[in-house]
Amino acid sequence: MIALLTLAGFVLLIGGAEILVRGASGLAQSFRLSKVVVGLTIVSFGTSAPEFAVSLQSGFAGQPDILMGNVIGSNIANVLLILGLTSIFVPLIVHESLIRLDVPIMVGLSGLLYVLTLDGQLVRLESALLAGLLVAYLGLLFWMNTKGKSPSVDLGQAAELDQPTPIWKDLLSIVTGLVGLVLGARWLVAGAVDVAEYFGVSELIIGITIVAIGTSLPELATSIVAATKGEKDIAVGNVVGSNIMNILVVLGVSGAILPVDIPIQASSIEVDLPFMLIVAVCCFPVMMGGFTIHRWEGALLFTWFVAFMVYSVLSVKSPEVAETMEFWTYRVAGPLTLLAIFGGGFANYWMDRKKSLPA
């Protein structure tokens, strides 16, 4: 029964987000809003709609650990799982604007979130600050568009709607999508709590693992389909944009709406949030190597995702084994991985620069 409830929540959540985005995009086109405006607002929010719905539901239900774990786990999964797994199948192309704008913003927001949570909580004023940065970020993208610079936002879903649909159908899609999101989030959170109680693990671990992976499934499907169809830059932009929205929308907006502050567990401050920040920073050398994420880099990212999931579970079920794993990670595996990523990225970047120089 627990598995069915959780699975039904996942299905409703993902389906509701897809229907909501399509309905809202169609309604925007009926009012002759540009696809850029649609992409910057509706589609961007749509990629984080499952996480947002789960965060609100878990916050109001008194399970803030699921809320925080969902954001941390989703941002880690987006880079290590989605980019890693997708680039194993097809090496991904990275648009230069991602390196110059979006990745630095993602890294900066990850660092800001870590600093804000060092006192053991994310208060409503801090959440409101993140929500305010969302307005500033969208304003920056609009400004760049007016200056003729193409913003790195996934417009693929918005571009699919060339012919406006009847307004009543769009409104019906929006209502249906919202109902799916609300019910899906409620069932998923209830199922996640039951799973945590059944296996004797914390709600934070469930949020970081099961809930985070489940709410990242839309990004995973979108990235793999986009990459296999040749839209490799969309796959990368989708992940980076989703990570930004997770911090600004899921934590910022939902945290400002919730009537209480969000408590942060010590394990998140000591391990999870620093790891999320390191993963974000590693995007620089990985993506700068010829503006391509190679297969070996994807395999490395995916390996670290598996390792993090294993560590998250062992930290609760077998603390002694987790401590040993943590020791070897910090002393051996971590430094070697950083050396490979930064060394490989610099080598690829240098070779690309040499090729561009006149003979």
Q: How is this fold's topology laid out?
A:
Blueprint: H1 2-30, H2 35-47, H3 49-60, H4 64-89, E1 92-93, H5 96-116, E2 121-122, H6 124-146, H7 156-159, H8 167-199, H9 203-215, H10 217-228, H11 232-257, E3 262-263, H12 266-288, E4 292-293, H13 295-317, H14 319-356
Antiparallel strand pairs: 1-4, 2-3
The Rg value, from CA coordinates, equals 20 Å
Distance N to C terminus: 68 Å
Average pLDDT rating: 79
Q: What would CATH call the class?
A: Mainly Alpha
Strand order of the largest sheet: 1-4
In CATH, the homologous superfamily goes by the name NCX, central ion-binding region
Strand content: under 5%
Number of strands: 4
CATH fold naming? A middle domain of Talin 1
Structural class: mainly alpha
Taken together, the total number of domains comes to 1
Note poorly predicted spans: 151-161
| Helix segment tally | 14
The run of helices and strands is HHHHEHEHHHHHHEHEHH
What form results from the Cα inertia axes?
Answer: globular
Largest sheet: 2 strands, antiparallel
Q: How would you classify the quaternary structure?
A: single chain
CATH architecture descriptor name? Up-down Bundle
Approximate helicity band: over 70%
Pick out its properties.
359 residues, mainly alpha, A middle domain of Talin 1, two-stranded antiparallel sheet, 14 helices, 82% helix, globular
Could you describe the 3D structure shown?
It contains 14 helices and 4 strands. Helix 10 (217-228) packs antiparallel against helix 11 (232-257). By secondary structure, the chain is mostly helical. The strands form 2 sheets. The protein has a two-stranded antiparallel sheet. The chain has helices spanning 2-30, 35-47, 49-60, 64-89, 96-116, 124-146, 156-159, 167-199, 203-215, 217-228, 232-257, 266-288, 295-317, 319-356; strands at 92-93, 121-122, 262-263, 292-293. The protein has one domain (2-356): Up-down Bundle (A middle domain of Talin 1). The model is unreliable at 151-161 (pLDDT under 50).
